[in-house]
Each structure stands twice: as structure tokens, then as C-alpha cells.
Model the fold of this input.
Amino acid sequence: MRPADHFLSLLSRYSPEEGGFSLTSSQCDYLKREFSSLVSPVLGRRYAEEFFERSGERIEQDGGSPLRLGAAAAFFLQEFDDRHMELKEEDWEDIRETLNEASGEIDLEILTKLMAALLERGKII
Done:
């Protein structure tokens, strides 16, 4: 099992039946810790937590699935599967902005691979 798969399985517990999802404060804190521990080796703790907060709030507001946070984590970990994972354009914008903001702290080889993956998907103009 890939690391992102475990996080996706956690998120699936909070997937909406109908009309979006809503997390209690303790659930949100738990998922934020899990996301951060997964993604912070790539982004650093600060940027991982900021990404989770910003994206999680937006996903909750637009009634989307929390699985999008798992797909974003998979992207950062270079485990993204275009056939089985879905991100909206706003998610790609958050990813791109986070990579730009954290570029000074991300390993150059990893940053290059992630930016190339964005370019391949047409998410960088």
C-alpha cells in the first residue's frame, strides 16, 4: 500500500453521502496531522498545514469530496493516478501556489519533478 492510499482510506470515512462534507474540529485536527505527517517531508510542516487548511476549507465550502485532499497528497508524493484520482482546477491552483511558495524549502529534484508533472497536465501556463 502506498502512503497516500492509507490517507485516502482515512478520508473515505468522511466522504459525503449527499451535499458535501463537514468535519468536527477534532476530525479536522486529526486529518490535518495525518496529512502533514504524510506531506511534510516534501513541503515542510508549515506549507503542508497551510495547504490542508486552505484546500480543506475550500472543498468544504464547495461541497466537494475530501478525497481531493488525498489526491493532492498523492500528487505531492508523486503517487497521483490520473485514471482514479480527481482534482478540480482550484485544487491544481492550490498545488501550484504551494509549490511556488515552498520552492526554497523543497528538494530541487523533487520540485523539478512536481513542476514537470504540472506542465505535463497543462496546469502551468
Q: What stands out?
A: The chain has a mean pLDDT of 89.
